[in-house]
Write a structure and sequence with these properties.
2 domains; 18% helix; Proliferating Cell Nuclear Antigen; single chain; DNA Polymerase III, Chain A, domain 2; elongated; alpha+beta
């Protein structure tokens, strides 16, 4: 296996974001490209990342599965700078990582055995699909973090609301002018601890797509010209007092 990325900064950023959810992953490299699917240790969230084959300037591989410690991988990737290119090559039980800029720098990362079942992002049915500006979504979540540890996603009479309540409250309201809303009335509550991590990925694209339903997992999709990234988050179901 030998692959080359001409501008690895986006890839580095995604690895940093995923490392906040899981510490070890299986990286699959096959005819589709490079992908990661993982569930966090608390079984609350799931992430799916695809860097398509076309994103690479060199892509020579059969199907490979690489067991990677993300903390160690992240530290190496952060040595890439603007204008660097990145080469990943499997050599026996190591991943050889080359960073090309003014000089060529070599790292060898030991591959690890990860004992876990194969994971796939489930196909769920949703009653609400909302596409909105990423910056608006980020601002709304950050507003909620100021007042609570969870927030509700609500569709009501054609409007999409993001609301957090405790002693204090915060709410953002989106009409069809500010977002594409294809939805029935519904409501689900989610942990802001996880959403705070997810919104770091929202900065990678102009738009974010949210799919949810009553007390149903949230699916958050982020795509740009180079990558696809999806998160799944279990709802927070609470008994009303």
């Amino acid at each position: 296996m030998l692959v080359k990325l001409e501008n690895p900064l986006l890839f580095t950023r995604v690895i940093e974001i995923i490392s906040e959810l899981v510490t070890e992953v299986r990286i699959k490299v096959n005819s589709l490209g490079l992908s990661i699917t993982a569930i966090d240790p608390a079984n609350v969230s799931m992430v799916r990342f695809l860097l398509p084959r076309d994103s690479f300037s060199v892509f020579e591989t059969d199907e490979e599965v690489l067991g990677i410690n993300l903390e160690n991988f992240k530290k190496i990737l952060k040595r890439c700078g603007t204008g660097s290119s990145l080469v990943l090559e499997k050599k026996d039980s190591f991943l050889n990582i080359q960073i090309h800029d003014r000089i060529t720098r070599n790292f060898n990362l030991s591959l690890i055995d990860i004992e876990s079942e194969e994971k796939e992002m489930p196909n769920l049915e949703y009653t609400a699909i909302v596409e909105l500006n990423s910056n608006d979504f980020i601002d709304s979540i950050e507003d909620c973090i100021v007042v609570s540890d969870s927030c509700a996603f609500i569709v009501e009479n054609g409007k999409f609301l993001i609301e957090a309540r405790s002693l204090n409250s915060a709410m953002s309201e989106f009409s069809g002018d500010e977002a594409k809303i294809q939805a029935e009335n519904c409501k689900a509550k989610y942990s802001l601890e996880y959403l705070q991590k997810f919104i770091k990925a929202a900065k990678l694209s102009e738009k974010v797509v949210l799919s949810f339903a009553d007390d149903h997992p949230l699916k958050m999709d982020i795509k740009n010209d180079f990558l696809e990234l999806s998160f799944l988050l279990a709802p927070r179901v609470e008994t009303e007092d």
